[in-house]
Amino acid sequence: MNEVLQRVRSESAEDVSRQGEAHGPKVALDADAVKAAYRRWAGVYDTVFGGISAFGRKRAVAAVNRLPGSRVLEVGVGTGLALPHYTAAKRVTGIDLSGDMLARARERVRRDHLTNVDALLEMDAEDTRFADNSFDIAVAMFVASVVPHPRRLLTELKRVVKPDGYILFVNHFLTPHGVRGAIERGMARASHSLGWHPDFAMEALLPPEDIARARIEPVPPAGLFTLVTLRQEDLSAAQEKVA
Ligand SMILES: C[S@@+](CC[C@H](N)C(=O)[O-])C[C@H]1O[C@@H](n2cnc3c(N)ncnc32)[C@H](O)[C@@H]1O
């Protein structure tokens, strides 16, 4: 019986990830490639990526801080660069695939005495061990273009966030046209060593009905990143209409 349930679960997970694949990046990373990439990046991540991504990270955490509810899941917490920006009222659980990145985050929590960080766990964000409706808010900063199956990530976050909760993403998304889009497609060849996809389209993460109901805001520098906020209640209403 368990085997049957397991198979049904993994088959439906495959369906979900296939739905986004048509829009997916040309070079896909699997979990081992993600771990290997971030093993290399862990020591220099803050210096190389910390600066350019700081504004997007601060904007996303400020948005989380304004939302109701205290239980926050930070997905792909990395070296924990965002952790000091949460207000004390938010209780944060961080998860990441990379033990090397998490080691840096744990060090930051100790060094900065971050008492509102409840746990930092090595866990796959596409298939967590959390019960349904465990969190008020889930936030994924610069993670959606790194996970092997972005649609599975979205499905999992919808499961673990309460029906009146929120899901936020801040990410770089592919510019469909123009010079910037051409550069992003060119950079995609380096996806494996970069550990992320420069040619990652929003449609690879979100189905059209979610894009339609999302709050989508460009974030500096130069709108390079985008903050996406999804309200679970809007999703439920959309799903009821379809049913
Ligand atoms: C670009 S870093 C972003 C780190 C952090 N959010 C930040 O703002 O600096 C992407 C992180 O996502 C993690 N990651 C990738 N796939 C994951 C998955 N399936 N589950 C959990 N973490 C994952 C990587 O290990 C890495 O630490």
Describe it for me?
This protein is α/β, with parallel strands linked by helices. It has a single domain, classed as Rossmann fold (3-Layer(aba) Sandwich), CATH 3.40.50. It is 47% helix and 19% strand. The protein is built from 10 helices and 7 strands. It has helices at 2-21, 31-41, 45-66, 99-112, 150-160, 178-187, 191-194, 202-205, 208-213, 232-242; strands at residues 71-75, 91-96, 117-122, 135-141, 161-171, 215-219, 225-231. Strands 3-2-1-4-5-7-6 form a 7-stranded mixed sheet. The longest helix has 22 residues, at 45-66. Mean pLDDT is 83; it is low at 1-17. Residues 34, 38, 53, 57, 76-78, 81-82, 95-98, 101, 124-126, 141-143, 146-147, 196 line the site of S-adenosylmethionine (SAM). It holds the Pfam family Methyltransf_11. One of its GO terms (molecular function) is S-adenosylmethionine-dependent methyltransferase activity. Keywords: Methyltransferase, Transferase.
